[in-house]
Automatic annotation (TrEMBL), chain A:
<dbReference type="InterPro" id="IPR036868">
    <property type="entry name" value="TusA-like_sf"/>
</dbReference>
<protein>
    <recommendedName>
        <fullName>UPF0033 domain-containing protein</fullName>
    </recommendedName>
</protein>
<comment type="similarity">
    <text>Belongs to the sulfur carrier protein TusA family.</text>
</comment>
<feature type="domain" description="UPF0033">
    <location>
        <begin position="7"/>
        <end position="31"/>
    </location>
</feature>
<dbReference type="Pfam" id="PF01206">
    <property type="entry name" value="TusA"/>
</dbReference>
<dbReference type="InterPro" id="IPR001455">
    <property type="entry name" value="TusA-like"/>
</dbReference>
Amino acid sequence: MNADKELDARGLNCPLPILRAKKALAEIGSGQVLKILSTDPGSVKDFQAFAKQTGNELMSSTEAGGEYTFFMKKK
Amino acid sequence: MDDQKKLTIIATKGTLDWAYPPFILASTAAALGYEVTMFFTFYGLQCLRKDLSCLKVSPLGNPGMPMKMPFGPQWFKDINWNIPNILQANIPWYEDIATALMKKTIANNGVATIAELRELCQEAEVKLLACQMTVELFGFSHSDFIDGLEYVGAATYFEYGGEADISLYI
């Protein structure tokens, strides 16, 4: 999947991945896609909750070797 | 904007550990689009000091706090130092030692500092209210605190609390 911007939140803990993602989303346009990398297991549910409450679309959420990758499309 | 959700938090604790929940919840709510107001009263005022080195943690009398070392080999890190209260109370500078160890643990775990979370709240335009009565009671002066605060009383808190969807007392 192609992303317009990438955010490396690996090694960060709650609530920093969400706060950094919010900031990164502010820097892209509507309909553009943000790729987020995280190592926080709590971020899986948190990004779902973030998407639900902010209206941004969580297009995919995957895990490989303890690393999580999210693609989020800005509202 | 009237359908915007609103959160208020009353922050009453002035230790390093208890400074976290109000700022974590406030910054996250702001990121989710909430309008957030925080009212700092009594010991909570310590969270608004320019110099945050006043925030310390004490494991003394806190059975819920695991006492693990943030350095050394894994077997050493895994030890929970179950020191009896009567001994803890007799170790000089115990709070300073525990605070230094907790700050190291915080950094090791990629957890933000209080200063960082507070800045994120300010950037997100979280409204910060300080209890003027406590400022006087504890002998503080406004110059002890960061800029951008409003010094108010309980009635002003309720102006926001009364309109809020969620209100938390921490």
